[in-house]
């Protein structure tokens, strides 16, 4: 990636922006500019102020001091997304799509094509189809958003922004939920946009991607501007160091050798369920087993079926030697089997509640004394969990929705661990969280395994799978295509199994 | 038997048979339409309509009465259309759900050539009905006030529990106030109790808390009166000549009057049986040689221990 | 342990931090009482206060049940009709039992037992249809509302079902008699309120209701049997309706199609005035009780004055309900700083 960044005039400039929420300052005199035809990456740990800066750049927040210049002129941006009319589009991390409407309706929401006062659906459909074909997305304009996967929804957001002739496109972790394959398609789209002169602000925790796609990189730490550099001058390692402000050695903890003679704690034979086709595997005590594959390959479905979250059609599940083919979620929990969802906002945490009820919800029966909930025990558990998982909150009474993504993830982990499972399935353990927190979570997983807990890590990030797991199961289209061990665990091998280029005869 | 006589008999029989057939073909069909009973008064009306149907069809074999009840004004309008198109009625007896929305549907029945009898609630356009049968709402208020004046003296206090805010309620109330004026009886306050027992109970409880001295209660309706009596008994203020005047003619109330109840000594008639009066008159329009068309306003008779028996229908639900 | 029901505003303030969300309903009730006293000092007479509390018992008890249903993200529109239908069946059963069981306490107990069974059954039907049948609660209970209402009309032949006078004597004290100066219905109300408060705030079941109303998917992933908890909330609602019916029937000894009309809306209004969130996830039993008291007090005050035209009663009720909710919803500190 070596596009020469000319000193062409910036489309948008943020000059000495400071921002406080009430008495709490979150940005200190930060400056940043975006030029036409460049990808400008914005990186930093969770809580560094990236989201706030993005919202100021797109008019969702007013700066407390400092100014926004558009085409060199000082311009106060209109609030609530009205900056779209100026060509500034923000794609939120929690996608902003009307779930019950179709793709076409969403793309044209608020600027529908009309003929004689009636909606011209044919024209809109054709237009949307054109964009979908361009981006290579295999859905129909008439599909409902609620039926799409998260990845597909993300792509629809991008189509929506592209169709609005954006001059500045601000994307908050667009690739967090995309597979590598999808990311490639997405980057092709980004390059096209660049060529057409759009300025792109790109927020990501995936530093390899930043290196690949960005022309310039701005680094924030604790609300302070650290540096803006050409990406050619940076490596993922230097980026991480600048973000964290310290040496980040050992992102992944040293791996203990798995004991191949340990008891098999979970044994799955010929499992069939919605999206799961004849899956068999075993999990040993103290083992970290990775599940890799493309999004939609059935990894999550396997474990939702095993944990009683969705029905099983056929097959056998043995848990610690006992038949466990028809457990409810509560029975699975009581048997020591817990599933940690990848969708922490929709399925993991009650965002409008405080930390205490969230922490104890999964293991609530443990906190019942004489038919009522033992609040003191709950408080103690919270204090313990905050210490053990390093959950950082301004005070314990804020609602969980106000925590940063990393702290939410740590709280979710604490919630699941509260029932002291012997087998824990962690789905996308580090989605959308910063590198410092990632490191903490990897160390935690390793420590769990060392204590004898069996861990399943489902992840779309290959380095994570490779860096943490003893064995890796690769899935494709609902069935297992390969189980890798030792030196075979590398990106190349995994990708070949995941893409269906290689297949082991397992049965 | 002579040949002549026999022939005559045959001729007469034949004529009778012929006449009978003609009558069977041209039965007088009378549609009777009223709201589906959802409260006791309407249930009483339903009962009286059914009684009248049996009685009239027995007296006049050539009369066919078709009873239809409807749960809302829209359904009643449809029912009227069906009576014309399906049954091809010769006359309609209708107690309209509401005046305004049913005026046009009744007018359409009128245009089909049928005789129209309207009961209780008038239509919003004059001159549609041939016959109007109704209770006398102002008279109900006036008779109640006259009874009060007879029992109470200058300076005595009464409270009033009114019905649902409607024209009927206003007519009763205004006539009562006009009659009571100048008598020296104080009307402490009046509140709506919606012709409902529970509301009657609660409003009366509050009147009792609010006014330490009440000598009589005009409850306007027998359902309200039941609630009022319960509240009086609860507060222990049912003695000392206290009395309650209701209205309508509920069988329990009439029974109590017959038995000499002192708390509810009288009742003022607003009879659900008026539907039967209307059905009788409508049949008479076809059968009687006397003129029938016009307005029949029933008296608001004061029911006392002496005359109560003739208004007592133990079989009726009201 | 006292519930918030009889707590004054001052006590509430000690218990919770000063917060309009929780204090709003208490302040609204206090204001109403002051207005009532100023209009007519007889408002605070012992007799009137007793009447007020007794009267709030019906809506209050039903509203405690509704708090569970609404907190768990449901709604029950059938409660008024259910009360009418249960009253009707109770009366029929007791009237028919006189011949075999006499007119004593056993007959009344039989009636009460039937009422409780019917309440549980009706609640279970609502719950099972929403959870297993996967129909929206609004539609299910709209349907059962019509069914129960027409059943009572049918039982009563469109008229009124009256309790036999022999049993009335036995049953009457349940409404009219007092214990320690408070009528029995108020004791039932207090009992239901305390049980409801404990259940919602102190047990795992209450926590589950809140979690389900807040986010059903999270609840499911947290090993909560969502269908069972939701069905239980409807059963609790049915049970509360039974209790309300058991103290309602001895009052006038009758049931008709007009019994309990609009009780469902009054109960829902009481719940919302009390600070429970209509879309679920946050429930307050104490607030619900204050809400029921507020609703009853409005009607009581309107009967105590002739300043306001009778025809405007609905307007006054509507205004006071809206003001009470405004008091509770507005974050007054934020709105002040926002204006400056």
Task: Please provide a written account of the structure.
The complex is a heterotrimer of chains A (507), B (318) and C (340). Chain A is of the alpha/beta class and 507 residues long. Chain A has helices spanning 50-57, 103-107, 121-135, 150-163, 180-195, 207-213, 236-244, 299-306, 329-334, 344-348, 355-361, 375-389, 405-417, 435-450, 462-468, 491-498; strands at 12-21, 24-34, 39-43, 65-70, 73-74, 88-91, 114-115, 118-119, 168-172, 199-203, 216-221, 224-230, 264-273, 276-284, 288-293, 312-319, 322-323, 337-340, 368-369, 372-373, 423-427, 454-458, 471-476, 479-485. Chain A has a six-stranded mixed beta sheet with strand order 6-9-10-3-11-12, with helices on both faces. Chain A has a six-stranded mixed beta sheet with strand order 18-21-22-15-23-24, sandwiched between helices. In chain A, a hairpin with a 2-residue loop joins strand 11 (216-221) and strand 12. The two termini of chain A are 45 Å apart. Chain B has helices at 3-25, 40-59, 73-85, 99-111, 137-151, 167-180, 197-210, 222-235, 251-258, 274-287; strands at residues 28-35, 63-70, 91-94, 115-119, 131-134, 157-162, 186-192, 216-218, 243-245, 267-268, 294-297, 302-303. In chain B, helix 8 (222-235) links the parallel strand 8 (216-218) and strand 9. Chain C has one domain: ABC transporter involved in vitamin B12 uptake, BtuC (Orthogonal Bundle). Helix content of chain C is 74%, strand content 3%. Chain C is built from 16 helices and four strands. Chain C has helices at residues 9-15, 20-39, 46-71, 79-101, 105-131, 137-155, 165-171, 173-176, 184-202, 204-214, 216-221, 226-252, 263-273, 285-303, 313-329, 332-339; strands at 160-162, 178-179, 182-183, 254-256. The termini of chain C are far apart. Chains in contact: A-C, B-C.
């Amino acid at each position: 990636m070596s596009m020469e960044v000319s000193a062409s005039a910036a489309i948008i400039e943020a000059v000495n922006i400071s921002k406080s929420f009430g008495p709490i300052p979150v940005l200190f005199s930060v400056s940043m500019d975006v030029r036409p035809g460049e990808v400008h990456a914005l990186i930093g740990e969770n809580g560094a102020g990236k989201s706030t800066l993005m919202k100021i750049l797109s008019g969702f927040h007013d700066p407390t001091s400092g100014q926004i210049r558009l085409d060199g002129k000082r311009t106060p941006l209109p609030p609530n997304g009205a900056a779209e009319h100026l060509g500034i589009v923000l794609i939120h991390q929690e996608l902003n799509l009307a779930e019950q409407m179709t793709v076409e309706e969403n793309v044209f929401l608020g600027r529908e094509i009309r003929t004689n006062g009636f909606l011209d659906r044919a024209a809109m459909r054709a237009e949307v189809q054109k964009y979908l074909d361009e981006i290579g997305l295999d859905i129909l304009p008439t599909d409902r958003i609620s039926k799409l996967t998260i990845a597909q929804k993300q792509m629809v957001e991008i189509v929506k922004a592209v169709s609005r002739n954006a001059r500045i496109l601000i994307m908050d972790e667009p690739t967090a939920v995309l597979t590598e394959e999808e990311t490639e398609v997405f980057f092709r789209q980004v390059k096209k946009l660049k060529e057409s002169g759009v300025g792109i602000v790109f927020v990501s925790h995936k530093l390899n991607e930043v290196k690949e796609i960005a022309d310039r990189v701005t680094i924030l730490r604790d609300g302070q501007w650290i540096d803006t550099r050409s990406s050619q001058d940076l490596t993922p390692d230097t980026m991480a160091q600048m973000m964290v402000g310290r040496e980040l050695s050992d992102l992944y903890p040293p791996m203990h050798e798995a004991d191949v003679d340990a008891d098999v704690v979970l044994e799955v034979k010929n499992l069939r369920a919605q999206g799961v086709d004849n899956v068999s595997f075993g999990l040993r005590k103290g083992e970290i087993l990775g599940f890799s594959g493309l999004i939609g390959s059935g990894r999550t479905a396997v474990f939702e079926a095993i944990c009683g979250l969705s029905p099983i059609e056929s097959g056998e599940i043995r848990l610690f030697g006992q038949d466990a083919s028809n457990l409810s979620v509560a029975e699975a929990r009581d048997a020591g089997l817990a599933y940690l969802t990848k969708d922490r906002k929709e399925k993991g945490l009650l965002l409008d509640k405080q930390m205490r009820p969230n922490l104890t919800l999964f293991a609530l029966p443990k906190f019942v004394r004489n038919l009522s909930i033992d609040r003191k025990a709950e408080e103690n558990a919270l204090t313990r969990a905050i210490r053990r998982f390093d959950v950082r909150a301004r005070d314990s009474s804020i609602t969980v929705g106000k925590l940063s993504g990393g702290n939410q993830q740590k709280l979710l982990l604490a919630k699941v661990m509260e029932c002291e499972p012997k087998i824990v399935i962690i789905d996308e353990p580090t989605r959308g969280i910063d590198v410092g927190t990632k490191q903490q979570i990897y160390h935690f997983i390793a420590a769990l395994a060392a204590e004898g807990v069996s861990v399943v890590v489902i992840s779309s990030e290959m380095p994570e799978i490779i860096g943490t797991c003893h064995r890796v199961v690769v899935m494709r289209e609902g069935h297992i295509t390969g189980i890798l061990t030792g030196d075979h665990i590398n990106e190349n091998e995994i990708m070949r199994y995941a893409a269906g280029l290689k297949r082991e005869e397992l049965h | 038997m002579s040949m002549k006589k026999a022939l005559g008999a045959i001729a007469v029989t034949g004529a009778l048979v012929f006449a009978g057939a003609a009558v069977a073909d041209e039965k007088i069909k009378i549609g009777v339409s009223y709201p589906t009973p959802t409260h006791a008064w309407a249930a009483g009306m339903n009962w009286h309509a059914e009684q009248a149907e049996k009685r009239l069809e027995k007296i006049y074999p050539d009369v066919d009465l078709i009873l239809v009840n409807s749960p809302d004004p829209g359904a009643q309008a449809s029912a009227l259309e069906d009576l014309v198109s399906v049954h091809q009625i010769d006359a309609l007896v209708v107690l309209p759900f509401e005046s305004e929305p049913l005026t046009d549907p009744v007018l359409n029945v009128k245009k089909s050539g049928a005789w129209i009898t309207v009961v209780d609630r008038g239509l919003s356009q004059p001159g549609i009905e041939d016959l109007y049968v109704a209770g006398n709402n102002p008279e109900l208020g006036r008779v109640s006030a006259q009874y009060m004046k007879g029992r109470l003296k200058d300076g005595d206090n009464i409270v009033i529990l009114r019905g649902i805010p409607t024209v009927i309620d206003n007519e009763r109330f205004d006539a009562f106030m006009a009659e009571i004026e100048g008598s020296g009886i104080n009307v402490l306050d009046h509140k709506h109790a919606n012709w409902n027992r529970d509301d009657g109970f609660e409003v009366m409880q509050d009147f009792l808390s609010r006014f330490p001295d009440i000598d009589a209660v005009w409850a306007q309706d027998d359902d309200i009166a039941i609630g009022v009596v319960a509240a009086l008994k609860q507060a222990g203020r049912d003695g000392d000549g206290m009395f309650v005047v209701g209205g309508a003619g509920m069988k329990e109330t009439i029974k109590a009057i017959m038995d000499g109840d002192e708390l509810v000594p009288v009742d003022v008639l607003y009879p659900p049986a008026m539907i039967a009066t209307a059905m009788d008159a409508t049949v008479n329009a076809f059968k009687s040689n006397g003129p029938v068309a016009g307005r029949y306003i029933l008296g608001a008779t004061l029911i006392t221990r002496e005359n109560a028996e003739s208004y007592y229908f133990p079989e009726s639900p009201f | 342990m006292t519930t918030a029901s009889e707590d004054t505003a001052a006590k509430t303030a000690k218990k919770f931090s000063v917060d309009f969300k929780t204090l709003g309903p208490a302040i609204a009730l206090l204001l109403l009482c002051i207005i009532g006293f100023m209009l007519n000092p007889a408002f605070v007479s012992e007799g009137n206060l007793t009447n007020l509390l007794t009267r709030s018992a019906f809506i209050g008890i039903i509203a405690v049940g509704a708090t569970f249903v609404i907190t768990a993200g449901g709604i029950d529109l059938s409660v008024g009709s259910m009360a009418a239908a249960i009253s009707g069946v109770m009366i029929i059963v007791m009237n028919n039992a006189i011949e075999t069981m006499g007119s004593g306490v056993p007959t009344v107990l039989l009636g009460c037992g039937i009422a409780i069974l019917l309440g549980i059954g009706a609640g279970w039907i609502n719950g099972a249809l929403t959870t297993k049948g996967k129909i929206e609660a609004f539609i299910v209970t709209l349907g059962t509302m019509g069914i129960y209402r027409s059943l009572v009309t049918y039982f009563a032949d469109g008229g009124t079902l009256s309790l036999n006078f022999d049993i009335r004597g036995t049953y009457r004290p349940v409404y009219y008699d007092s214990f320690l100066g408070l009528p029995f219905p108020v004791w039932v109300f207090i009992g239901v309120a305390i049980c409801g408060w404990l259940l919602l705030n102190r047990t795992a079941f209450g926590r589950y209701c809140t979690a389900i109303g807040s986010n059903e998917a999270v609840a499911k992933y947290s090993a909560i049997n969502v269908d069972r908890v939701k069905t239980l909330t409807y059963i609790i609602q049915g049970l509360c309706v039974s209790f309300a019916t058991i103290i309602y029937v001895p009052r006038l000894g009758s049931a008709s199609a007009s019994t309990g009309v609009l009780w469902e809306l009054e109960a829902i209004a009481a719940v919302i005035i009390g600070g429970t969130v209509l879309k679920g996830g946050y429930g307050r039993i104490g607030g619900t009780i204050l809400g029921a008291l507020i609703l009853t007090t409005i009607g009581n005050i309107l009967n105590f004055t002739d300043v306001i035209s009778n025809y405007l009663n609905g307007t006054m009720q509507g205004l006071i309900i809206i003001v009470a909710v405004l008091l509770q919803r507005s974050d007054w500190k934020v709105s002040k700083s926002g204006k400056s």
